[in-house]
Amino acid sequence: MAEIVKKLVVLVTKGIESELSSVAFTIANGGITAGLQVSIFLTSTGIDLVRKRGQAMTQVAPLDPLAKLIEDFMQRGGAVWACTPCVTSRGYQQEDLLDGVVITGASLMHGEIKAGAATLSF
User: Is residue 21 within a helix (H) or strand (E), and if so which, with residue range?
Assistant: First the structure.
């Protein structure tokens, strides 16, 4: 019998100005630990979470620093998608973002949801 892959998509609209960004990545890391295949779709100010050096400015005690949460997430196989119009509206290019971040429209997220992924929003 084929193994069922359980997926989680986390939509993050908050950036470095909100503690919810750290909570989102903490929960996403927990999802990976629980055996889920986790993707994060960043919109609005959430884009700044993956701008090089942007995430270095945030830590919500007692959580790990945001930069570590994001690094751990990506190293453990988590996918990070950045909304194309949101990236463009900030004047960012691919080279402005952390390595491994994919600039894309919402179609990747919608595809995962249509295939049965659970969703969370922050």
Answer: helix 19-33
